[in-house]
Amino acid sequence: MKIAVLSGKGGAGKTFVSVNLSAVAQNAVYVDCDVEEPNGRLYWKPAMEKETPVSVLIPEFDVQRCSGCRKCVDFCRFHALAFVREKPMVFSEVCHSCGGCVMVCPENAVLEKARPVGMVEEGARGGVRVVTGVLNPGEVSAVPVIKAALRTGGESDLTVIDCPPGSGCPVMESVIGADCCLLVAEPTAFGFHNFKMVHRLALLLGKPCGVVINKADAPYAPLEEYCEKQGLPILLRIPYSERLAALGAAGEIASEQDPDLAESFRGLLAAVRKGAVS
Amino acid sequence: MMIAIPVEEGAENLCVSFGRTPYFLIYDTEKAAAVTVKNSAADAQGGAGIQAAQLVVDQGANALITVRCGQNAADVCKAAGVKIYKARGNCAAENLKALEMGTLEELTRFHPGFHGKE
Questions:
Q1: Which of B40, B43, B51 to mutate to test the interface with A (most CBs of A within 10 A)?
Q2: Which of its termini does chain A have fewer beta carbons within 10 Å around, N or C?
């Protein structure tokens, strides 16, 4: 089973939920898809086993062969190519590596070369395999690294996908192969706003959802009403606690130190496995 | 000389955006004639600056007067030999006059673009 953990707003507790959920499962794969700032590994401190570079293919032009027909430039819907002084010019950070320019070139003048954009780290702690996607600083698209991390994660009894914040392409890529979504909500106006955005995304992708309300000191009425109206099950409420915050800040996996929290996460996992999501 | 300026509808006022300007004013100094060209990049999903710069190059411009411009568009202009000048004020006609009188400065600072930002 693959569970994607997402929130819209950053800092709502995606990593906290993903790490603790995999920790109580014991036999699990944790995949950090928040590749711009992967921080799950700060908690797992996994014994590192492997680092695999991730590259994308970008076009390179053989100027001798290029006839200047401009077909590649006109084909590129991402506008990663310009046509200047009768020759194509590549903007590699805009390129989506679709390979279309190679296909449409009648002169076979377009070659592809690999451009490194990040890497995937693999390691383990106890029964949890830890897979971390790491995007190189300055890179625009997280998607190739997310794809590689999920591929590395593979199939297992339980895979927990720690998604990036927001509701854009990197989140879609992280969620698309999941069986269900856990939406981590913060009971604030800001948290609720972004929560609705990711819920819409999950609906669009046809993923059943469950809700975890984090830092839940008091019910936030609009969030509660929304969940009720949408038939969204609230599977866990984690009250704000200074102790949990301190454990997090110290890089500890809180459920390993707090038996009550571990019990809560075991309950959450059992509920999801039983199909309590909708 | 052919001069390109990103302009709003009506072609009197400059548009602050280069890549997503609705129109370009293309002014031919020899013929003292101007045409307005619709910017096909205005609603592009991405790479608008590159596509808009392509349009400027394809129109045969030698100079571009703009409020601002991204690095990728600047690279296209540079490769094509289009000089980029910093616009002063909001009026297209005044900027054309200023360029002819040689009082416009070249634009040397380009922003990194807004790619992937939502």
A1: B51
A2: C
Residue with tokens 């996996």: A253
- The CATH number of A2-54+118-273 is 3.40.50.300
* Residue B82 contacts residue B61 (beta carbons within 8 Å): yes
Helix (H) or strand (E) holding B83: strand B83-86
B50–A91: do the CB atoms touch at under 8 Å?
A: yes
Interfacial A residues in 139-158 facing B (CB < 8 Å): 140-141
* Nearest-angstrom CA–CA distance, B35 and A112: 40
A56-116 CATH choice from 3.40.50.2300, 3.40.50.1970, 3.40.50.720, 3.30.70.20: 3.30.70.20
A170, A140 Cβ separation under 8 angstroms: no
CATH code for B2-100? 3.30.420.130
Q: What's the pLDDT at A93?
A: 86
Q: How confident is the model at residue A125 (pLDDT cuts 50, 70, 90)?
A: very high
pTM listed for this prediction = 0.81
